[in-house]
Design a protein that fits this description.
- The structure is a single chain.
- The protein has 245 residues and is mainly α.
- The protein has two domains: 114 residues, no CATH class; 130 residues, no CATH class.
- 73% of the residues lie in helices and 0% in strands.
- The chain has ten helices and no strands.
- The chain is globular, with a radius of gyration of 19 Å.
- The two termini are 28 Å apart.
Length: 245
């Protein structure tokens, strides 16, 4: 099951955050754009698993339903962090459901017959890195949208976005390397570098909210990836640090 889940998660991240352009996101309410995206979802899942199966078509159909629901939410309500989290949460649930109902998708594919056991783990770790950095950027951006008035005006163009991606990437690497305690040093370093923002309440609150949101996203994604990776290796799902012998 976990090999299938890792491959499906890798395909999902590629389809949503690598192969989906900004133009596609902006015009996703158009049928042609949406169907193109669903076609990419279907093809990336086939390639990641190395097999054809009707469960992959079901997954693509579920992805279509979730995206349609999100489009309606945005149209009649607003494009907020809640819409984004609900969308991604629904996608992750569908991935887990398909992997649970069809756990042999990976083992029936050509990659399982031709590659070693590390292939699903490599897919998982790569997908986790993209999900922690790029997907986290969208999440934090939507959360911080209503507070844009408090954003520092003297920052480098896209500087905050780059800092966020780097810090989430570092947190992810620390968890994967088994060094989660290093996150404390990262918090301390950023606090020192952002000390000047404390002189302005609006700037300070903006930086604090954005930093905490960024850290929370990276930690949550890291824990998710570690849990799936533990499943791949037969370890307890909630074990963060490897046990010493």
């Amino acid at each position: 099951m976990f090999e299938t889940l890792a491959a499906l998660f890798f395909a999902h991240v590629l389809a949503d955050y690598v192969l989906q352009t900004e133009k596609m996101v902006a015009t996703k309410d158009r049928p042609l754009t949406l169907l193109t995206h669903i076609g990419i979802v279907y093809l990336t899942a086939i390639i990641a698993l190395g097999s054809f199966d009707w469960w992959i078509a079901i997954l693509a159909g579920l992805h279509l339903i979730v995206d349609l629901a999100k489009s309606l939410w945005i149209k009649y309500r607003s494009d907020t962090i809640m819409a984004y989290l609900a969308d991604q949460g629904a996608h992750l649930v569908t991935l887990a459901a398909v992997a649970g109902f069809a756990p042999a998708l990976w083992h029936n594919g050509i990659w399982a017959m031709q590659t070693t056991a590390w292939a699903p783990e490599c897919m998982l770790l790569a997908a986790g890195a993209i999900y922690a950095t790029r997907a986290g950027g969208f999440a934090v951006g939507k959360l911080m949208g209503p507070y844009a008035a408090g954003a520092p005006s003297d920052s480098l163009p896209a500087g905050g976005m780059m800092i966020g991606q780097l810090e989430r990437g570092l947190i992810y690497l620390m968890f994967i390397a088994g060094l989660p305690a290093g996150i404390g040093f990262l918090i301390a370093a950023k606090s020192i570098l952002r000390f000047d923002a404390a002189s302005n309440n609006a700037k300070a609150e903006y930086v604090i909210i954005g930093t905490l949101a960024s850290f929370c996203w990276a930690i949550a994604v890291s824990l998710l990836i570690l849990a799936i990776n533990n499943g791949l290796n037969g370890a307890p799902l909630l074990e963060i640090m490897p046990r010493s012998n």
